[in-house]
Amino acid sequence: MIDLSKEIWQTLKTNKLRTLLTGMSVAWGIFMLIMLLGMAKGVINSFSSSDFAKSSNVIQLWPGKAAKAYHGLKEGRRVNLRERNLADIERDNHAHVTEAAPELSSSSMKISTSKDYITKNYSGVYPEAKEQKKMIRGRFINENDLEKQRKVMVLSLKTAAILFDNPEEAIGKTVNMSGLSFTVVGIYEHRWQDRIYIPYTTAKALTAYSDKLSTIRVTTKQLSTEQEANDLEKDIRGTLGKVNRHASDDESAVWVWNRFANYLSHQQGMRILNIVMWVIGMLTLITGIVGVSNIMFVSVRERTHEIGIRRAIGAKPRSILSQVIVESVALTTIFGYIGIIMGTVGTTILDKMFGNTDFIKDPTVDISIALEVTAVLIVAGALAGLFPAMRALKIKPVEALRTE
Q1: Which of 33, 51, 239, 397 has its CA 20 to 30 A from that of 213?
Q2: Which residues pair with 134 in a beta bridge?
Q3: Distance CA 27, CA 31 (A)
Q4: How far apart are the first and last CA of the chain?
Q5: Phi-psi region at 385: left, alpha or beta (left = phi > 0; alpha = psi -120 to 50)
Q6: Where in 144-291 does DSSP place strands (E)?
Q7: CB under 8 Å to 18, separation ≥6 — which residues?
Q8: How would you class 280 by CB atoms within 10 Å of its CB: exposed for 0-12, middle for 13-18, buried for 19 or more?
Q9: Which of 193, 195, 196, 169 is CA-nearest to residue 182?
Q10: What three-state secondary structure class fits 322?
Q11: How many CA atoms lie within 13 A of 388 on its CB side?
Q12: Residue 360: which of 48, 24, 145, 10 has the closest Cα?
């Protein structure tokens, strides 16, 4: 093994410029592969950690207008969601529904303090509506708020900054809405939501106890495929169509956001993205591998006389084959790891520049990617040396000894 290592080192040392240029093409290919995989990983991590992914087991429903006539009822009529629909959905779809929760949304209301006012609508919700909101002060709506119909309110940081001099000290202070005083119990921060929340029971009291709902939030369970999610959506439409008297296949009667089906569809897109990045990276790497293969062909041709002598004194074909392949793997691996180091530095820089954005999160290389790339290097090096090695085996000792 020591002799083989010395021979490989001597060969690489003899042709420094050729080895360097060929090796850098391999290093560049590995660098590009690492960068592409890092970017794909960053996008996938960003999606996996998003609020959408963390609350994917939800189907949301909104009232609409019937687009089809149904049992004597004309199209174009308003179809309302009602409180009784909650029990209907849970009863008919209990195998895949954990809970159906209501939500009430108001029209624009004047909400004011001694400092300023805003015109905004509010949402009456259950505690489940908190989802992935980051509470930076206080708390969200709880069960006691619902039971006692408390006049409490949860504001976004942006809204609190308008209504109070110091939004982080707004907890316990009051705001006026519809002539009523509401106590601020929580301040939340969210990248894109800016809604005002009050307890559902309080919102219902403000609508004179109407049973009409703005939204139904269905929490699902035991779903694993997109087909199952779509089937559940179809079953919920069927339930609502039966009790609210509209065609079950009338998509305009009830607007549906099937988060789980969309989540699985996005996951498939992320897998395709990762595969595409691998393909592009491998195509870039192939350029370097072809260069390694060419240099090995040249090396075999230059050492024809040497190979002939070794064959003449009894060297086995396996010995010749292993020397060429190991030399190719060594060349690919040495410069490949230079490419890995470059790629690691590159993804670290990428993380510093874009790691906190909504599109890329933690694109740095981990041990799994390093192991995958190492396997690629070994296989690529072996393939690059295989054909030159096969050519070396075809050299006949007598003809090789004649070669000068």
Answers
A1: 51
A2: 189
A3: 6
A4: 29
A5: alpha
A6: 152-156, 174-177, 180-189, 196-199, 212-213, 215-220, 254-258
A7: 295, 298
A8: middle
A9: 196
A10: helix
A11: 30
A12: 48
DSSP bridge pairs for 59:
218, 258
Contact 218, 60 (CB under 8 A): yes
What is d(CA 279, CA 300) in angstroms, rounded to the nearest whole number? 31
Q: Residue 155 in contact with residue 196, Cβ under 8 Å?
A: yes
Q: pLDDT 10s per residue in the chain (404 long)?
A: 565 566 556 555 566 666 677 777 778 888 888 888 888 888 777 766 666 656 678 889 999 999 998 888 888 899 999 999 999 999 999 999 998 989 998 878 889 998 998 998 899 999 888 876 788 899 999 999 999 999 999 999 999 999 998 887 899 999 999 889 999 999 998 777 788 999 999 999 988 888 899 999 998 988 888 889 899 999 999 999 999 999 988 989 999 999 888 888 877 888 888 888 888 877 777 777 777 777 676 666 666 666 666 666 666 767 766 777 777 777 777 778 888 888 888 888 888 887 666 677 777 777 777 777 777 777 777 777 776 667 666 666 655 555 55
Composition of the chain by helix, strand, coil, percent to 5: 55, 20, 25
Q: Tokens standing for 148?
A: 């006692």
3-state secondary structure 325-341: HHHHHHHHHHHHHHHHH
Amino acid identity at 397: P
Amino acid letter, residue 281? G
pLDDT at position 16 is: 67
As a whole number of angstroms, the distance between CA 111 and CA 155 comes to 11
pTM for this one?
Answer: 0.66
Residue among 317, 316, 338 at smallest CA distance from 389: 317
Please give the pLDDT value at position 129: 83
Could you tell me whether strands 109-112 and 97-105 are parallel, antiparallel, or unpaired per DSSP bridges? unpaired
Residue 45: both structure tokens together = 């991590």
Choose among 218, 183, 217: nearest CA to 197.
183
In angstroms, the Cα distances linking 92 to 9, 87, 97, 244, 297 are 74, 9, 9, 14, 71
What is the C-alpha to C-alpha distance for residues 190 and 195, in angstroms, rounded to an integer? 10
Please, which residues have CB within 8 angstroms of residue 147's CB and are 6 or more apart in sequence?
Answer: 201
Please give the pLDDT value at position 80. 92
